[in-house]
Each structure stands twice: as C-alpha cells, then as structure tokens.
Specification:
The chain is of the alpha+beta class and 574 residues long. The chain is 39% helix and 22% strand. The protein contains 17 helices and 20 strands. The strands form 5 sheets. The protein has a 7-stranded mixed β-sheet with strand order 3-2-1-4-7-6-8, sandwiched between helices. Strands 5-11-10-9-12-15 form a 6-stranded antiparallel β-sheet. Strand 9 and strand 10 form a beta hairpin. The longest helix is centred in the N-terminal third of the chain and has 57 residues. The protein is elongated, with a radius of gyration of 35 Å. About 9% of the residues have low confidence.
C-alpha cells in the first residue's frame, strides 16, 4: 500500500515537474513569439518610415527640370480628336482639315457653381493670378529665375484647361489712341475702306484715350468701333513706366479680348497697299492658322530659350506690326503671349518689346505658324546721307509682292494737315529697297547691309553676303500710297467732329511725335513778347531735359531729337 502510494506520489511529482517544464517552455515560446512580433513590428515601422522617406524624397517636384518638361508636354497644342483616316497620300489640304477639326471639336467651357459659363475676362485673370502665385512660391523656394518664370507660365496655361473663348467672325484689330497714334490709326482704318475691304474694324486704346462721342459717331458708318483695353491690362498687371509710352501689352490684350476668331492685327502706323481680305484664304494661313512676318535680324541665343523650355535653333526675329491669327486654334498661345507682355519687366530683358513674344509663345506650345520667307524691305527717300529707310516693307505670303508698309521710324502725327499739293520734294516714300541674300539660310545677311545715320536705316549696295535692289515706290508697291494716306489725313482734318476732338487731343503747341517722349509741355511767355513752347523731353539714358521752340505758331511739325525739342518743318504759308 505504501509502495503503491509512494509510486503514485512519484508519478504525481513527475507530472507536476513535467507540467512546470512545459509551462516554462510554452511561456518561453510565447515570450519569444512576442519578442519576434515586437521586432517584426518595429522592423515594419522602420521599413515603412524608410520607404515613406524615400518616397517623399523621390516625390517629383513640379518645378524640377524633368517635371517642367512633363508639364510642358502635357499642354502642347492638342491634336484632332478624330483622326484623318485615308489610304491615299495626304492632300495639300490635310493640314487645313486638321485645323478645322481642332477648331470645331472643343470641350465644353467650364461653368461656375451656379452653372454660368466663365467669362473670358474672369478666366484670363484667374490664369494670370495662378501664374503669379506660382512665381512667388518658386522664388520663395529659391528656384533659379529662369526656371521659376518657366514654371509660372506653365501654370498659367494649365489654368486654361477646359476653357474655350467665344470668338467668332473675321475682322481687323488696330491699336492706336492718344495724341501720337489716334489719327494714324483712324487713317489706317479708313484706308482699308478706300481699298475695298469689308472687314469690320476695332481700334483699341488705353485709359483716357477714348475719342469723343461725336467723333465716334462720325466714323460709325464705316463699321469702325473703338475699344478700351485698359481694364484687361490693369486687371492682370501694371504697365511699367519705362514702356508706358509704347503700351506694348495693349497689343496682345486687344488680340485676346477682341471678339474676332480670325483676325488681322495692324499697328497704328502700318498702312496696307491692298485690301487684306484675301489673306485669310491663302495657303499658309489655312495650313497653320498663324502667319507671322520677319524682322531684319536673326534670333539671339539667350535666356528666353531656357525660360520657354526650348533648345536654341537658328531663326529670324519677328516683326509684329502685322499678325494674321486663327484664334479658334491658337488662343492658348495668344494668351501666353499676352501673359509674357503683361510681365514685361522680366521678358523684355530677353526680347525686344512685344514682337518675339508671339513666336516664342507659339514655339513653347508646339503650335504651328508660318514665317513669311521674303526678307523685310525698306521704304523711304533720299537725303544728304543717301537713301534713308523709315518704313518696314512686308510682303504677301503668296507671290512676295509688297503689301504692308509699317512706318515705324517716321510716324504721321495726330493733327496732321497735309498741303493740297504733294510735290516731289515733299514725298517721303520715293523708293523701296529690297535685300537679296546670297544664301537664303544666312539669316543675318540682310542686316549686314544696314547702318544708322540720322535716325534712319542706311543700306550698303552689297557685300559678300547680300546685295540690295531698288525700285521706285509707286512701281514696286503698285499704288501711290503716300498720296492716298495724305488725302485721308486731309479729309479727316475737315470733319468738324475731328477738329473739335483734336483740340482736346493735342492741346496747345505744334503737331508732332514729340508728345510720345516729352512731358510737361506748355507755352512760355517771354519778356520780349515772343512766345516759346517748351517741354521736358527724354534723351539718352532716359534722362529728361527742358528745351523750347521759338515762334511755335510757325512750326508745322516738331520732334524730340535726343532730348531736345526741335521744329522740323516750318509753315511756309501754303
């Protein structure tokens, strides 16, 4: 009994020992498992944090060079949504059909919370504001200046996504107002009518330059409307003082805000030699939707290429005194050009005025345009230094005949009252000089013939790169344009409405282009009784100085010659 009991006790003790061992084993296993789980959790956390850190570190910035390239690719000019499918070879009108498809198959315009379509003005302002915010943030983060501005204009175009402006119709836009440009712009418009053009015309001006109501009514029968572009310019950006006189931003703003879909733009001092209506039917316009004209000089290899995300390629600079644009196709590029002009404090350091902002906007968005191949000519007359060119001659895209005469160096001033007779010695358009480069690919050939004397372009006969040809103006142009233009100035001066408005427009003093670069003009009564008329005029370096003209009542035309007010033509009593 005792032995059995002892055996049982030993069995119990052995069972208890084994149970304790098993418990310790299970406890150790659970402990090890807990440690393992803790380790794995910690490792997972570390891996997660590490991956998150790596992901965060590698998250592509929207402003790195690579990101800017991706953003630029995303906003390139859209292709047709319906392919032009054909088993035959493409016809010459294939590109024109593409443009039609691109212009007609458009997304629906965005709407606000109440379902109203966003206006062009609100959309454009919002896009410019978005670009400014992007620029401020990029500059705050220390991005290089060119890259910051590139990111800004990309944001501006990205903000236009989904919008389509309500353009329609075909017409002409002219920029011109104030004492320097108003009369010239109006004569340029009336010349279109005289040559048989039926296109409606808009003349855009800045603040305080709106013609009087009687003046507007007097020309309303010619289908000429006056438009104020101040709001569009001021809403999106202040025009800098340095360029306030020339008002470069107004040109692109007028093009953006004009109601026309197909538009011919003309500077106020640009006169046509024939009705331009047929330009909209020419092959180059149908195929590209944009026709540009060249300047004299080639494009420079400078920072503008980096800003616009482009690699430098040789090309000719653009002359923007005339533009032919299908806005239904190219409105994004046009708004980008307008943005560049509104932010001219930066962009005009890289391009000369507004002119090349158009082709660089088109290039940046891979938008098609045709640059007229015929080199720019020059119109003018002979003086003591030889031939002096003051008018850029641009040519028809088809055939190359002269069609635009941009009088950019010898403008017709407002208030001009031409004499009844146009004598040979009084003519300022007597010759047209053309350039013939030895190598058409030599973009700097023509400018190699140029020199400057007396504020006019002088042309050497030839060199090893180019030669000049010369012909009588009327023969080369096919029209006595000066007689037609001066006749319109003379008829305009007879209108009572114009006479009254001219008093408001010009104030006291002689006529002349000095009003563009002179300030504080007024009559000075001298002690000897002889009146003088004086102004502070801008000279070299932007410095203003006071000068006067004696006997201003006998001065028919005055000008600013390097900061000095001078009478250029005395009234001979005719």
């Amino acid at each position: 009994m005792c032995i059995r009991d002892r055996s049982t006790g030993l069995q119990v003790m052995e069972w208890a020992r084994r149970s304790r061992a098993q418990s310790r084993t299970r406890l150790g296993s659970w402990f090890k498992l807990a440690i393992l789980l803790l380790f794995l959790s910690a490792a997972a956390v570390l891996i997660y944090v590490g991956l998150a850190g790596i992901q965060g570190a590698s998250e592509p910035s929207t402003r790195t060079p690579e990101a800017l390239i991706r953003r630029a690719d995303a906003i390139k000019h859209p292709q047709p949504t319906v392919a032009i499918a054909s088993t035959a070879a493409p016809t010459k009108d294939s590109r024109a059909l593409e443009l039609i498809l691109m212009a007609t198959q458009r997304p629906k315009a965005p709407v606000d919370a109440e379902g109203h379509h966003l206006s062009l003005d609100a959309t454009f302002r919002a896009a410019v504001a978005a670009a400014d915010d992007e620029l401020d943030q990029a500059q705050t983060e220390g991005f290089p200046e060119n890259m910051a501005h590139r990111s800004a204009w990309l944001r501006m175009v990205e903000s236009l996504d989904g919008y389509e402006p309500p353009y329609s119709g075909t017409g002409v836009v002219i920029c011109g107002g104030g004492p320097v440009y108003f009369s010239s712009a109006l004569v340029a418009a009336l010349l279109l009518r005289k040559l048989g053009s039926n296109l409606p015309i808009e003349i855009w001006h800045s603040a305080g330059e709106a013609p009087s109501e009687p003046m507007q009514r007097a020309v309303a029968g010619f289908e000429i409307k006056f438009m104020d572009g101040t709001e569009g310019v001021s809403a999106a950006g202040k025009m800098g003082e340095r360029h306030q006189g020339k008002k470069f931003p107004l040109k692109s703003i007028a093009l953006v805000y004009s109601r026309f879909e197909h538009v011919l733009f003309l500077d106020a001092d640009n006169f046509v030699g024939e009705a331009p209506d047929q330009l909209f039917k020419c092959k180059s316009y149908k195929e590209t939707g944009a026709v540009f004209w060249p300047d004299f000089m080639p494009l420079e290899d400078n920072g503008i290429w980096e800003v616009m995300g482009l690699k430098y390629s040789p090309g000719i600079a653009q002359e923007s005194g005339q533009l032919l644009i299908n806005k239904g196709v190219h409105w994004r590029a046009l708004m980008l050009a307008a943005y560049m002009n509104l932010r001219h404090e930066f962009y005009y350091q890289l391009v000369v005025g507004d002119k090349d902002t158009f082709q660089f906007a088109w290039r940046a968005l891979s938008s098609h345009f045709h640059m007229v191949e015929h080199p720019t000519g020059s119109a003018g007359s002979y003086d003591s230094h030889g031939f002096g060119g003051h008018t850029m001659v641009q040519h028809h895209p088809q055939g190359g005949r002269p069609i635009f005469f941009h009088r950019n160096l010898a403008k017709f001033p407002s208030g001009l009252k031409p004499k009844k007779s146009l004598r040979g010695r009084d003519r300022t358009w007597t010759q047209i000089v053309e350039c013939v480069p030895a190598d058409p690919q030599d973009l700097g050939a023509c400018v190699s013939l140029h020199s400057w004397t007396g504020g006019l372009i002088r042309w050497s006969p030839e060199n090893d790169r180019a030669k000049r040809t010369e012909d009588a103006f009327v023969k080369a142009a096919g029209i006595d344009l000066e007689r037609s233009v001066l006749s319109l100035f003379r008829q305009l001066a007879k209108l009572p409405e114009y006479q009254e408005y001219a008093k408001q427009l010009l104030g006291e003093g002689p006529r002349g282009t000095y009003r563009q670069t002179c300030r504080g003009c007024h009559t000075v009564h001298a002690e000897d009784g002889a009146d003088e008329f004086g102004c502070e005029c801008e000279g070299r370096g932007g410095h203003f100085r006071w000068s006067t003209i004696k006997n201003p009542e006998t001065c028919d035309l005055a000008g600013n010659i390097n900061g000095v007010l001078e009478c250029q033509v005395r009234d001979d009593g005719e």
